Transcriptional regulator (Natronobacterium lacisalsi AJ5), 136 residues
Amino acid sequence: MSDLSSSGSTGETESASKTLRRLESDEGGESCCDDPILESRRADDETVAAELAVFKTLANEKRLRIVEALRDGELCACELEAILDAPQSTVSSHLSRLREGGILNTRKEGKWTYYRIADTASLQLLDLAAALGDDS
């Protein structure tokens, strides 16, 4: 019985990509993967980390509900508790995470803290996500 993925008569197997590279080099051509432009297409670690932090911050149902509630303007924490029908401690932890992620800003007025969307780019991102979700 012959092994279709064997290389030569040694009986060793090779990966499909290695086989393709070997065949291309046998033809005297360069590998498509030798293109120097590939390195310039690699995302830098800082950019990926920043993007990942935003998506992790938004990847929670209650946090998304908070952002949606704030779409039309600022609300105080107690109003958000009522909207989410969640205890103060739960809402507080989600609000902290959204502030740390740069999604929300706050304003103090007396003993009340009001929350608002820090940048409309967050809302645009959610609009885009909703549009992508509608296409499936």
Summary: Residues 53 and 101 are 7 Å apart (CA to CA).
